[in-house]
Amino acid sequence: MSIKPDGTVNRPEENIHLLQLHDSPVMRWLYLSIGMTALFMGILGIFLPVLPTTPFILLAAGCFARSSERFHSYLLNHRIAGPIIREWCEYRSVARHVKRWAYLVMALSFGSSILIVSSWWLKGMLALLAMILFTFIWRLPVRDQSR
């Protein structure tokens, strides 16, 4: 599977057109700005325990699909983010190994944060946030890979 410069996914069984540049230069600039901000927030989310990564990367991919062929192609061809974005765009699902990785990183980051903070109400808030995020990730559909 490869991504053509026009944003089409090149597969023998199907072609999916993801890139749809907006006609207005002002709107393209706005989408590009939002996409860059979302990408920056997603990168920060790798290192900050409470900030999610995947939703921001997906938002950046959507914004780049409306604003910049170059950045859109870069994200779709990225070795880590590309398969996750394509899975979500094509099937509205997340691979099982991605969910497992998310659970592991979430447990490590929230667990260490809960151990570090001293206030009980902060520990409770972090635990509540972890449960909400766990539920959100648990509800994401997983596609059967044999299809």
Short précis:
This protein has 147 residues and is mainly alpha-helical.
The DSSP helix count reads 6
Order of the strands making up the biggest sheet: 1-2-3
N/C terminus separation: 16 Å
How many strands appear in the DSSP assignment?
A: 3
Radius of gyration in whole Å, from Cα? 17 Å
- The H-and-E topology, N to C, reads as EEEHHHHHH
Molecular shape: globular
Uncertain regions spanning at least 5 consecutive residues? 11-16
For the sheet with most strands, the description reads: 3 strands, antiparallel
| Structural classification | mainly alpha
Percent strand equals: 5-15%
Helix fraction by DSSP (H/I, runs of at least 4): 55-70%
Mean pLDDT equals 82
Question: Can you offer a commentary on this structure?
Answer:
This protein is mostly helical and 147 residues long. Helices cover 67% and strands 5% of the residues. It is built from six helices and three strands, in the order E-E-E-H-H-H-H-H-H. The chain has a three-stranded antiparallel sheet with strand order 1-2-3. Mean pLDDT is 82; it is low at 11-16.
Q: Which terms summarize this structure?
A:
67% helix; 5% strand; globular; 147 residues; mainly alpha
Secondary-structure map:
Blueprint: E1 2-3, E2 8-10, E3 15-17, H1 25-47, H2 54-67, H3 69-77, H4 81-91, H5 96-116, H6 120-139
Antiparallel strand pairs: 1-2, 2-3
Helix pairs in contact: 1-2, 2-3, 3-4, 5-6
